[in-house]
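Handout, page 2. Input:
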Amino acid sequence: MEQKEYVTLDFSECKYISEIYQQMREKMNWDDWYGENLYAVWDILTGLPHYGNDFTIIRPLHYQNIPHGQDKQFESYINKLCDTFMDAYREGYLNLRIEYC
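Output:
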């Protein structure tokens, strides 16, 4: 049986998309050449080397006070990112919990 590698991604304090990718890059131990977009996240979760196979994502249900009034756009991106993780979960690549704070 495969050993579980637990990773918690806490997006609750993130205000920029770059902060989200920085956290994933550090906690999942991505190679430097991995891109920072949803296609790259899918590729990482489904086959490229990374740390983690049991993920907890912590995030607010709704984001507020995102710079430049981008609350809805930022929240939409986080939703798409969580959907990417959820799709990888449904395909059997990882375990996933999403917690709302």
